[in-house]
Amino acid sequence: MSSGPPPGIDLYADIKESVISPVIALMVLSAICVALRIVAKFTTNVKLQLDDYFLFAALVGILLRGDSCYKGIGKHIWNPTVQLEEVMKILWAYEFLYGSVIPLTKLSLIFFYYRLFHVSTFRKVLWFVLFLVVGWWIAILVTSIAQCRPYNYFWKQYVDPTAIGSCINIPHFFVGNAAASVATDFMILLTPIPMVWGLQMPVAQRLSVLGIFFLGGFVCVAGIVRIVVLLQMFKSADLTWNMSQAFIWSSVEPNIGIVCACLPTLRPLLRRCIPDWFAGSSLNKSGSTPHYGTDYSSRLRSQTGDFYALTDRNGSNKDKSDDEMGLTNNFQSDGHQPRVSTGDAAAHEETHNGIMVKHEINWSSTSALHPQ
Question: How far apart, in Å, do the first and last CA atoms of the chain sit?
Fold first, then answer.
C-alpha cells in the first residue's frame, strides 16, 4: 500500500451503487430460479433429490454474503470513511463462503448427471470429477484457515503497524483457487457432451440438449474474467476501489452457476405456463412423434416439446415426471423406421425421474401420440 493517494484523485468518489446493484440483481435471479425449480418439482410430483439440496445450500451461502459495500468497497482506500479492517474481515469470511458455494453448485451438477445417465463408464468419469471437486473444496477451506498466523493477521496487517504474524502469498492463493475452479468448470461442462451426442435421437434434439448444457459455458467465462480482475486488483495500491470489480465477478460466477444448474429442470413448468412456446418444436414439425407399443399399461403423455420424458411400464408415476429431459432414450435407425435398440446395454429398464433407458417405442409420421 502506498503512503498516500496519487495526485488529482477524488478521495470521496463512491461507486458503491454500481457494485451492489448487479450483485443484488444476480442474487434475486438465482433465488427465483431455485424457487421455480422447487415449484417444477412439486407440480410434477417429484421428490427433491440430493442435487437439489446441494443447490439450496449454495444459494444460502450466497445470501449470507457480508455487507462489504457498506464498509468501503467501491471507495478509494484513502477515503477516511473506509473501514478497512471490516472490509478485510468480510473478505476473509467470504473466502469460506465462496469456497463452499462454488463446489456445492458443481456437486449439484455432478449428481444431476449421475441420475440422468446410467452408464458405467460415464459414471466413473463423474466419480473422478467428484473426487477433484471435493478435494479442491477441502484444500480451499484448510488453506483459508491456515493462510495467516495468527489468523487475524489477515486483516491486522492493514490497520495495525504493531501486528506480528505472517501469511502465505495471498494473491497467488486467490488466483490459483480461481484457476482451479475454472478448470473443473470446463471438465463438468465437457463431460456430458460425448454422452449426449452418442444418444441415437434426431440431430436437432441432440443439439437442443447440448445447448442447455452449453449454457454452463457462461460460468467458465465468468471464472476467466474473475481471474483477470483479481490480477488487476492485487497489482493496485487502491485495494478497496479495485476490489469492486472482483466483488461483482465473484458474484456473477456462483449466481450464474446456480441459474444454469436450474435450467434443465424448469422446462416442464414453462411448458405448463406457456404451452404455445413449445407447440412448434422441430421434432413435431418434422412429422415424427413417438408412441408406445400395445403392451404398455401406461401411455406416454402427450408432450409438444423437444424432449420426451417417459414413465415406467406399470404406470406408476409416483416420484416420476418429466422434470428432466429424456436424454437416455436409446434410439437407433432401422431403415425408414427408427426403433429402440435391443442390445444388451438397452435390454433392461432403468427409470428415474421420468426417464427410461429402455422402452419399445415406434416412430410414425403422425402429429400426436397414440397407442398402436
Answer: 77
Predicted pLDDT at 275: 64
> For the domain with range 16-273, which CATH number is right: 1.10.260, 1.20.1070, 3.30.30, 1.10.1040?
1.20.1070
Tell me which residue has cell 450464474.
256
For residue 186, give the amino acid letter.
F
Indicate whether 350 pLDDT > 50: no
For residue 348, the number of C-alpha atoms closer than 13 Å in the C-beta half-sphere is: 5
Closest CA to 360 of 294, 292, 288, 290: 292
Residue 229 · residue 245 · CB < 8 Å: yes
CA dihedral 284, 288, 289, 292 (to 10 degrees): 180
Calpha distance 218→168 (Å, rounded): 31
pLDDT of 319 higher than 50: no
Report the candidate in 348, 284, 281 with the shortest Cα–Cα distance to residue 312: 348
The dihedral region occupied by 287, where left means phi > 0, alpha psi between -120 and 50, and beta the remainder, is left
Tens-place pLDDT, residues 88-112: 888 898 899 889 999 999 999 999 8
